[in-house]
Structures are given as C-alpha cells and as structure tokens.
Amino acid sequence: MDRFFAKEDEHKIAWIKRFLEYDAMIPGFHDEEVADPQAVIKKYGFPLTVEDISFYPGKAEDSFQMRPVFPDSDARKYADYIAKKLEYRDEIKEKNCPSNKAMRKWHKRQQGRCLAVLGGRCEVIVHVPFTVELSEGCSVGCEFCGLNAGRLKSVFRYDEENARLFNDVLIGTKELLGDCAGEGTMYFATESLDNHDYESFLKDYIRIFDRIPQITTAVALRHKERMHRLLAELNEDGRTIYRFSVLSVEDVLKIFEEFTPEELVYTELLPQYEESKATAFANAGRRGKEQGELDGTISCVTGFIVNFSNKTVRLTTPTSADDDHPTGEIIIDNMPFDDAKGCIEAMQAMIKKYMKNTISPKDRVRLRKGLSWEKDGEQIVVDCGKGARFTIAANESGDIYNDMLEMFEDGYHTRGEIVAKLTKRFGGALVRTEMLYYAISRLWELGILELESGQI
To answer: Are 240 and 234 in contact (CB under 8 A)?
Structure first.
C-alpha cells in the first residue's frame, strides 16, 4: 500500500497527534483544554490553531471515525490519516488469507468463531497467520500482560547458523502460506527489543517479505538510540505502525521529551496506567487473574507462532479468556523442531491434523453457546449479543436454516439426524439431501456451529 499521508503533511499531523496524546494521557490537560483551548495551545507551545484540534465526538455507528469541526482546517489531514490507518487494518485482514487451501478455510472459520465469542471487540483482531518470537519470555514483566509472558529465559542471537535457520523458515513459510506470511510480527509473548540482534533479523525479514513488521515495545526509553534509528527507517517507509506501551505518566513525559512529534508520527502510544482516560485493558493473563475476572483477549494470531529461541512452533487462535483459556487464546498444539525442514513439516502436520473443514456423518454439532437467532423477513439473523450479528440469506428451497436452527435448540445432532428429520418434515420431496448438506456446511464455515468433540 501507499504511505499513510504525504510527506509535506507530516509536521501538522504529527503535532495534532501529540496534542491529542496530551489530552488522553496527561491528567488535568483535558480540563485545561476545555476551559481555554487557545491558552493551552500557547502554554504548551503547540504550532496549531483551535480549528486544527477540534473534532466531533466519535459515534459507535461510524466506528468512531474522527470528524473535524472545521473541515477546511488541518484537522482534516489528521482525520484522513486515522481513516487510512483503519483502512490499512481492514486491508491486512483481507491479505491474511493463506494460499494453503485447508488453512484458508480454517482461518476464515476461526474469524467467524471469534466474532461469535468476542462480538464487536473482534473488529481490531487482524488474525495474522504467522508470526515469530526471537526470545523466550520477557524482561519487562508488565502486571497487565494479557499473555502472561514468563521471565526472560533465552535470546536467539544472530550468527551464521541462526541466520540460516531464520531465513529458511521464513522462506519455507512463505511458500506454504503465501505472501500473507509477511503480515505478522517478530514478537508475540515477548519484548521485541530484548533481542540485541533484532535489527539484523529485521533486515532479513524486510528482504524476504518487503515490509517492516510492527514493533510493540514497553522499553523504548531503555533503548533510546536503537529506537531513534528504527523510527527513522519506519518513517521513511511510511507503510506500517509501531507501538509504545507506556507504563506511567512519568514515562510518557520522558517519551515526549526524548522523541519529537515527527519521529512518533507513525507510532501509537498505548497508555497502560490508571490515570489515563484512554487506558483499555483486557482481563486476560495476569490482568485477568489480578481482577478475578477473565474476559477478552490481546491475541491477534490465527495460525502459527514460531519461537526460534526454544525451537517450537505452536498453532493458536484468539478466544475470550476463561478458566480453560486464561490468556485469551486457544493453543491447539505446540511442536518442537530441529531445523527449518522440521519446522515446516510441523506446520504441515498441524494443518493436516487440525484444519478439518467438513462435517463428517459421525460429528455431533449444535449452534455455538451464547448465540440466539430469529427470522427477519427473508433472512435469518444470528446474534452473539456482543455487538455482532451474522446474516444468512433465505434459501429458495424453503426455511432450511430456520428449521435447522430450531433443531439445534435441542442440543447436538449428527448430519444424518439433521437430514433425516428435515427431509421428513418437508415430506421427503421438497428439499434435496444435497441442499441440507450445503446448509450444514455453510453454518460450519461461518464459525457459528460447535462440535461436541471440541474441535474447532
């Protein structure tokens, strides 16, 4: 994709962004702004006008898109930048379509399942099918960590042997999954900058996938010079986003002092402290345990995570955190490997074993728990009760989906039981067996059916 904005607009966009970060992250700033915006602009030295920082409150029905109060001001440039970022997120979702046929169908079904269990919160999940970790554990130990990352145990250093393994795995995964393999990151339940050779691996990643992977780091201030260099490369490219997790008001002020607005124009600051009005935690992992309530997820991977430090590859997909999945992810399998060939073979084995895309005669299925449905004119609307709905068009052969969903209210049924009861209900003549098989498969592909076996 193209840059998020024209280079000549960088200065204005960067300073509007910095103003809004003050508003969201510095206690008391918002009250000052409301009282006298012009005085605040002058006091803090922002090269802006009141018109530049005036936006209407976002509305849920508009996906909280920013709308300038004065469309002819520079606020329009910033609003367009935010809109472009949202388009980029949706574009990534579309790109994250594995070329492997079995995984492609499984991956699509998991997106529907996530929508069913997470509702509208699922909108921000991009479902990358492949990501890598360059260390085991994390040096930071954030108390809110939704993935409950353990202490830093080891780091995968860049030497001739490790570089060869890294390159061969990335190239092999690209051949297996397609270009979407490059939409991931080089961190997951890890801290990106714990690996002192991150930049060396980054060069190889860019060469193979032609994109800069996102960094999310909580230690930008610990690695100032590294971040200045990485930000310069990111800003020159202009096609992706970094993220800084900010742990306190003191830290955000230090970040403002260390990094210019222009340097951070492509970097989102994520406030992770109670004093910020923009803080949003998921009650998963350590945070969920502390709160005594598990809910939500911070996972964005529906596919493979390769940890090069301990040489394992795991298959995972997001879910809402609960007692069985406290980190908000379903870890389907975790396999060791010795070399690149073994890593790719492990992925292939998991695709074959777990990515089942058909309902067999012995499978017992039902509508996923927590979902409700109703007939709305010529459509069936399935509601997950969390701000998300599935709409199924009516079938020309009759109310197949309506009658099938009524059956699921009684519990699990095999494909044979469904066909036997529904053909009998329709007199055995109005609906072909093939049409019923198609309807069952359609509901399964949407991700709204669950198997009694627990397989997803």
So the answer is: yes
Predicted local distance difference test score (pLDDT) of residue 111: 94
Give per-residue pLDDT as tens, 105-136: 999 999 999 999 998 888 889 999 999 999 99
Instruction: Give start and end residues of each alpha helix (H) in 259-369.
Output: 285-291, 340-354
Residues 6+ positions from 100 with CB-CB distance below 8 Å = 176, 177, 178, 351
What's the pLDDT score for residue 239? 87
Of 243, 251, 221, 222, residue with least CA distance to 26: 251
For residue 35, the tally of other CB atoms under 10 A from its CB is 9
pTM of the model: 0.93
End-to-end Cα separation, the chain, in angstroms: 33
Q: Can you list the domains of the chain with their CATH numbers?
A: 7-86 (no CATH), 98-218+272-354 (no CATH), 364-451 (3.90.930.60)
CA distance 113 to 107: 10
Residue 425: pLDDT over 80: no
Distance, CA of 412 to CA of 450 (rounded, Å): 9
Side-by-side strand order, sheet with 329-336: 128-133, 301-307, 312-318, 329-336
pLDDT bin (cut points 50, 70, 90) of residue 431 is low
What's the one-letter identity of residue 21? Answer: E
Distance CA 352, CA 183 (A): 23
